[in-house]
Protein 1
Amino acid sequence: MDMNQSAKLKKQAAEAALSYIKNDMVVGVGTGSTVNYFIDALASLRGRIDGAVSSSQASAAKLKALGIPVYELNTVDEVSVYIDGADEVNRALQMIKGGGGALTGEKIVASVAKQFICIADQSKWVRLLGQFPVAVEVIPMARGHVAREIVKLGGDPIYRDGYMTDYGNIILDVHHFKIINPREFEERLNNIAGVVTNGIFAARPADVLLLGTEQGVEKIQAQ
Ligand code: 5RP
């Protein structure tokens, strides 16, 4: 699939998510190129929604530029719906995320949201998670320690050179993990001292996947 086709499918999935947005809602907004299409579409509902809570500085800047009010998560009572992309998603709607480095903010807003709608093009749909490297956000002083623990778990950690997260931390992109039980693996990684969070989203999977395919947008519920 060429880039233009993949962009078209991302845009279709993103626009289909508008049907989950109701008047006066505070909308949780993820990060990435698919979400950027969603933010563009959300601008058409400006004035009808209350505003947004953002998972990253990048999405917050784009929302504000389009005139959509952005609230701090701590100042809102609830987030009805959270819209975000994924790097991989399986039948249980568990995901690998964090290719864009915003995994921590994404995991926090996803945990608060009542409903998580994942928007993706068909290239993200997988039987088993793990081809895409797992991003791990790490407190800088723990970089060596976390890398050694990850090697013991069978992964090959690569330092994301020159990248700093919204929270001043570093990212290790871990290749070659065998993720048999995503939920257990997510927890195991989080238990390493110095890990802030990791890009396996299994404890809080999506509720609905809107998958952009050549045949149109498929709506898939968790199985
Ligand atoms: C960012 C993410 C994104 O949702 C994921 O990387 C997918 O990105 P894109 O929509 O650009 O393909 O988790 O941290």
Protein 2
Amino acid sequence: MKRLSALVIVVFLLAMVPAFHPVGATQTDLSGYTICVDAGHGGTDPGAVANGVEEKDINLAIALKVAKLLEEDGAKVVLTRDGDYYVSLSDRVSIANSAGCDIFISIHANAASDTSASGFEVYHYYGSTKGNLLATYVDEEIAKEIPLKNRGVKEAGFYVIKYTTMPAILIETGFVTNTYDVSIITDENYQWKYAYAILHGVQRYFGVPVHDPVPTVTGIRFAQHDGYFRVVLDVSQNTSYETFYYYYGYYVVVEVPNAKLADLGWSTDGDWQYTSTGSSTVPYIYATEYNGTVYVVLELNTPYAKYSAFTLSDPYRIVVDVYS
Ligand code: ZN
């Protein structure tokens, strides 16, 4: 059996999947958008303090989760702060304006002398039509996820939503002065629910179908070790995958459904990216994304060479060791 050339494997693998390429499809994720996420307060400015919590910590915890999901969905995210330090209001505005952000999302928690005051609300600047639209979508999505009273969309003249030049909202996630609200806004699972709700509201604002981020194979690394050749797929989030031999055992295919493939910086041939490895165990690796499935193909020097596949978490990686 003669070894297949790169071109032949391309043809064979393309036959595995429906030969249909959407042309001129509408945008399906947030790629191309720049979004400013503003965690209120920070450093010497704790924001509201009550019930043993400081507002700045809640704001940052939610903002970082929002940023992660927006990035996983393709957006470029600009954070006004990514840690516990002080940033002035004018600096926050400058960061957003100079980065040319498309929208601005400020995250805060509320406080009131009446400890029974409870719930979330979303502000936009007075009379801002686009701000109102963004605020409405985000408010509606939070209401689906968070078991707190929806205090609704409101107008205000807060500095950061007044002086930013893009549509801007300020979310009050709940009251630090209310013990039930605190139990929600400090809970990591609920913080993720806020983040997903904000993502979905942003998707609606930009006319993108509401969805959770699709896992992306962001990189493929490899190295020859003593007795085995290791291939590592870096994936943006946990996902399922399958591995199988293909074409008389000359190839091991890693199939990652419902995933996207980043530009690996490899050589390209049509829809495929490929690289030589310098290893005699796996001389070539090919990768492509087709109809929402990522295929990574390891060319074997020895048909049916033994391999093992497993995953590592945080960050999520799919590892395939091919034994030589
Ligand atoms: Zn605040």
